[in-house]
Design a protein that fits this description.
13 helices, 4-stranded parallel β-sheet, alpha/beta
């Protein structure tokens, strides 16, 4: 019986010989050095592929002081937004030739957040992306001397990059108002979430801009159960429409209203937020506001890489992207219009004296307006996209 001998790992010397270049040139290619001619770079990359060369990140880190690894600190990662962002960050990092390592913390426990950050720093990550849905997490970050690039997400206006939460809420409310509703309630997210706070602010701002009475606000915890439990209070309020701060609560509310004998949308219209996969298949299919988590992740990863001093390997399709791109879904009207001065589902005009911030509107997807640079020099928030389905109709007579 013959024994197979272990094969020697392919090294830089082998790649250099196959490509017909020096070892220094191979090293420059591995370290993203700009002073390599394009044809030489292509020849070295081809040689690596032919030989099955595997880069030794530990050895590379010794020479470059970079590990090509991004740390992600997440709290409440089971919620739809953070979980989608986590997947999108991993995909965007991989597309740029990076990997992520994640740590999870209890956002209500400062010691837990601090320990998670220290764990990630011990992995010699090139930078951090931190989900900070609660102000408490931001407080911990402010108190630490981290020493590497840190990008904040899911902290509404306090994020480095964000989807415009207020604009999304205003578009949702404007959609209901344009359909003729005047008694609009809000099923809010947890009070200690910054994004829930921003959506509640957008709700109040759009009502005020239209001269509509302040709507009733009911507290939820993001779960379908809390939406279901809010149904009787919503009925008692006399509201003919509800903006729910996320789709799970909206779907729970639909179930609770139906259990109480209230038809949706004939008696109460509903708009959600996030566009979870189940929203298109609910009954009725749920009108909602879609966030572009992929663009959010792309911006965050690119910024971490840029701030860490690494060359960015631009993800092909999304390089230069400024606004969300949404694909067609399984159901929905063939034409739609939204807030911000456009005609609404019932043909109404946008708000007077204070139009909602612009957001893209489209049948099962549409494209938001092109992004821009904020007047103060920062990146403008990513515009949300209204997805019109069948859960909004004019109020009962």
């Amino acid at each position: 019986m013959s024994e197979s001998k272990p094969q020697r790992a392919v090294g830089v010397r082998d790649v250099a010989a196959r490509a017909g270049v020096s070892r220094q040139t191979v090293s420059r290619v591995l370290n993203d050095h700009p002073d390599v001619a394009p044809d030489t770079h292509a020849r070295v990359v081809a040689a690596m592929a032919e030989l099955g060369y595997r880069m030794n990140n530990a050895a590379r880190a010794l020479g470059t002081h970079r590990t090509r690894t991004i740390g992600v600190l997440a709290s409440d990662a089971l919620q739809y937004g953070p979980s989608r962002s986590m997947a999108a960050i991993e995909a965007s990092a991989r597309e740029a030739g990076y990997w992520i390592t994640a740590a999870f913390a209890d956002s209500g426990d400062e010691a837990s957040v601090t320990a998670a950050i220290e764990h990630l720093r011990a992995q010699s990550v090139d930078g951090l992306i931190v989900f900070a849905p609660h102000a408490r997490t931001l407080g911990v970050l402010d108190a630490l001397r981290i020493g590497i690039p840190v990008i904040i997400l899911h902290a509404a206006e306090r994020s480095d990059f964000s989807v415009d939460q207020r604009a999304g809420a205003r578009v949702a409310v404007a959609t209901l108002a344009d359909a003729g509703h005047e008694r609009i309630a809000h099923l809010a997210g947890p009070a200690d979430w910054l994004e829930a706070e921003a959506r509640a602010a957008g709700f109040a701002e759009e009502l005020a801009a239209r001269g509509l009475p302040a709507g009733a606000v009911f507290g939820g915890d993001w779960s379908p159960r809390s939406g279901h439990e809010a149904a009787r209070a919503v009925i008692a309020s006399g509201a003919t429409a509800v903006f729910a701060a996320n789709d799970q609560m909206a779907l729970g509310l639909i179930g609770g209203l139906r259990a109480a004998g209230v038809a949706v949308p004939e008696r109460i219209s509903i708009v959600g937020f996030d566009d979870v996969p189940e929203a298109a298949y609910a009954w009725p299919p749920l009108t909602t506001v879609r966030q572009d988590f992929e663009e959010l992740a792309h911006r965050a990863v690119a910024q971490v890489i840029a701030e860490s001093g690494s060359a960015v390997v631009a993800p092909s399709a999304r390089a230069g992207s400024t606004g969300p791109t949404a694909a067609a879904g399984p159901a929905g009207p063939t034409a739609a219009a939204g807030a911000a001065g456009a005609a609404g589902p019932a043909g109404g005009a946008g708000s007077e004296g204070g139009a909602a911030p612009a957001a893209g509107v489209g049948p099962e997807g549409g494209v938001g307006p092109e992004g821009a640079v904020d007047p103060e020099g920062g990146a403008a928030p990513i515009p949300p996209v209204l997805i019109l389905r069948d859960s909004v109709v004019p109020p009962p007579l």
